Amino acid sequence: MKTFLSTLTLVSLSQLALGANYTLLKDHSGNGFFDDWAFFGNYDNLTNGDVTYVNQSQSTNLAFINSAGHAIVKVDNTSFVPYNEKRNSVRIGSKDYYALGSVWVFDIAHLPYGCSVWPGVWSSAFKWPDQGEIDIIEGINKMTANQMALHTFAGCNAATGTNAINQPSIANCNDTQGSGCTVAEKQSNSYGESFASAGGGVWATQFDESGIFIWFWTRASVPASITTATNSIDISSWGNPSAAFPSSSCNIPQFFGPQQLIVDITLCGDWAGIPSLFGPSCAPSGNQSDPSLCYITDVINNGTSDYATAYFEFNSIRTYGVNSSVLVSFDGKPESSSNSSTGSSSGSGSSSGSGSGSSNSSGSNGSSQGSGAKINLMVTPSGLYAGMAVATFLSWLVL
Ligand SMILES: *[C@@H]1O[C@H](CO)[C@@H](O)[C@H](O)[C@H]1NC(C)=O
Ligand SMILES: *[C@@H]1O[C@H](CO)[C@@H](O)[C@H](O)[C@H]1NC(C)=O
Ligand SMILES: *[C@@H]1O[C@H](CO)[C@@H](O)[C@H](O)[C@H]1NC(C)=O
Ligand SMILES: *[C@@H]1O[C@H](CO)[C@@H](O)[C@H](O)[C@H]1NC(C)=O
Ligand SMILES: *[C@@H]1O[C@H](CO)[C@@H](O)[C@H](O)[C@H]1NC(C)=O
Ligand SMILES: *[C@@H]1O[C@H](CO)[C@@H](O)[C@H](O)[C@H]1NC(C)=O
Ligand SMILES: *[C@@H]1O[C@H](CO)[C@@H](O)[C@H](O)[C@H]1NC(C)=O
Ligand SMILES: *[C@@H]1O[C@H](CO)[C@@H](O)[C@H](O)[C@H]1NC(C)=O
Ligand SMILES: *[C@@H]1O[C@H](CO)[C@@H](O)[C@H](O)[C@H]1NC(C)=O
Ligand SMILES: *[C@@H]1O[C@H](CO)[C@@H](O)[C@H](O)[C@H]1NC(C)=O
Ligand SMILES: *[C@@H]1O[C@H](CO)[C@@H](O)[C@H](O)[C@H]1NC(C)=O
Questions:
Q1: pLDDT averaged over the chain?
Q2: CATH numbers and ranges of domains, the chain
Q3: In 10 A of CB 301, how many CB atoms?
Q4: 82: buried, middle or exposed (CB in 10 Å: 19+, 13-18, 0-12)?
Q5: Domain of life here (predicted)?
Q6: CA–centroid distance, residue 365 to ligand 11 (Å)
């Protein structure tokens, strides 16, 4: 078990920007849901999962609008995959980046789950981990509860003793230790079959100078301020968040730059595929010390029934801001004045804005918001990466 490395101050959530009304920036819903997202178009080179993330031209059967008008994002469950090959899946990244002062609302009817399945709804700065990552929804295999996390450079901690519903399991957000700072959801119906049978639910993330706050509501509890929101949203009645990362323990403007929203589903890999996590619940009679246990059990061959639940169904993803200037390019420049936005071309099949920039940066921390600093560093492994330490820590959740 981890010990907390820092003495954390007891904080209240008084720093929450209470009573804030936010203006609608982007409405990803209906037939236009996939507008303004880039498809990754590469194999999973981030978390070592056994998938190829299709490009846009190959995505027709894996990313589409269903008859209910909702967006499906799924793992290929119709193809025969020969041994040593990867299964097709999807990773999309928003062409927009969001600066501090934004709120992102994910209304979801179904999350991918099942053996070997590892979905994520998360955000990342262009420069990673220098400017931070926020994991909003993440789970593996037969987990029944969602896990949230931040990943940053050393010096950012998740506060304990806030009035958030869930307290951190690991407080140190230092990504170089693998797990980031994690918060396990204890409210009901946050993942897997129970999430789906409850009719899904809504997550909202407030990305603010005062902190990062994540709310989760199962369908029956989604507040009217969300269901009735049109061109603005009032967060003042949302109550205690599910997870709180106030600036008192993590200087948000220092550790976080503009964030790109990302949705993906990988299979096996650095978390779901660890034999000690996968084997007991998903292949108890298999060879528990074979590192390819997950791959050979689920990914290859027909894979048709294994992946019947490996899909997202999004009712909508809507983003809001204190004003429209929080909608920026990867480099923090207002979109309207930037020429280097990865969002300017559609269907390029490039890396979803996660590292195709060719410009340079002075590399200073905390100056990225609107600074116009350009960036040279490629984004390195997605912080969805969860190393052995967290995997072990979380093994009780998985069984
Ligand atoms: C937010 O908007 C609602 C609806 O327009 C309004 O009733 C409320 O007073 C506003 N709150 C703040 C703090 O501006
Ligand atoms: C951050 O992680 C690195 C690598 O494990 C370690 O060397 C460093 O001491 C950590 N720093 C803090 C403040 O946790
Ligand atoms: C189980 O897998 C390990 C690691 O690949 C291998 O060394 C061992 O021989 C396997 N055991 C059996 C019974 O196949
Ligand atoms: C794949 O599915 C087909 C049709 O159901 C079946 O005939 C075949 O045996 C399956 N192959 C494997 C390797 O599971
Ligand atoms: C494939 O997945 C879809 C959901 O995405 C499901 O409706 C369908 O039944 C699955 N097919 C098989 C053969 O399991
Ligand atoms: C938008 O909001 C940000 C953050 O509060 C503020 O710094 C900026 O001045 C505002 N811009 C405009 C055009 O109002
Ligand atoms: C963007 O590029 C075009 C063509 O190179 C140039 O004319 C325009 O001034 C540039 N705009 C900005 C804001 O840099
Ligand atoms: C999309 O991927 C397919 C399969 O890898 C490839 O043949 C095709 O050239 C790609 N299309 C684009 C536009 O990159
Ligand atoms: C992963 O692939 C993308 C797309 O080809 C590329 O831009 C990125 O640099 C790669 N990342 C790593 C860590 O290799
Ligand atoms: C980035 O720009 C700085 C300042 O111009 C320069 O010193 C540095 O070498 C550049 N880095 C790269 C990788 O090009
Ligand atoms: C960014 O800040 C972190 C934490 O304070 C520090 O370890 C790192 O060296 C800084 N990077 C740059 C480029 O200044």
A1: 82
A2: 16-398 (2.60.120.200)
A3: 14
A4: exposed
A5: Eukaryota
A6: 6
For the Cβ of 70 lying below 6 angstroms from any atom of ligand 5, the answer is no
138 is catalytic: yes
CA–centroid distance, residue 32 to ligand 7 (Å): 28
Interval 66-104: pLDDT, tens: 999 999 999 999 999 999 999 999 999 999 999 999 999
**φ, ψ dihedrals at 221, nearest 5°:** -110, 5
Do residues 97 and 328 lie in contact, with contact meaning Cβ atoms separated by under 8 Å?
Answer: yes
Angle made by CA atoms 39, 40, 41, in degrees to the nearest 5: 95
Contacts of 14 (CB under 8 A, 6+ apart): none
What value does the CA radius of gyration of the chain take, rounded to a whole number of Å? 20
Q: What is the DSSP string of 2-26?
A: ----SPPPP--GGGS-TT-EEEEEE
User: Would you call 133 a catalytic residue per the annotation?
Assistant: yes
- 330 CA distance to ligand 5 middle (Å): 36
Among the listed residues 326, 320, 361, 321, the one whose alpha carbon sits nearest the alpha carbon of residue 340: 361
**Going by CA atoms, what residue is nearest to atom 8 of ligand 7?**
339
Atom of ligand 5 nearest to the CA of 74: 5
Give the closest residue to 139 by CA, choosing from 280, 51, 264: 264
Per-residue model confidence as pLDDT tens digits over 6-47:
323 233 333 344 446 899 999 999 999 999 999 999 999 999
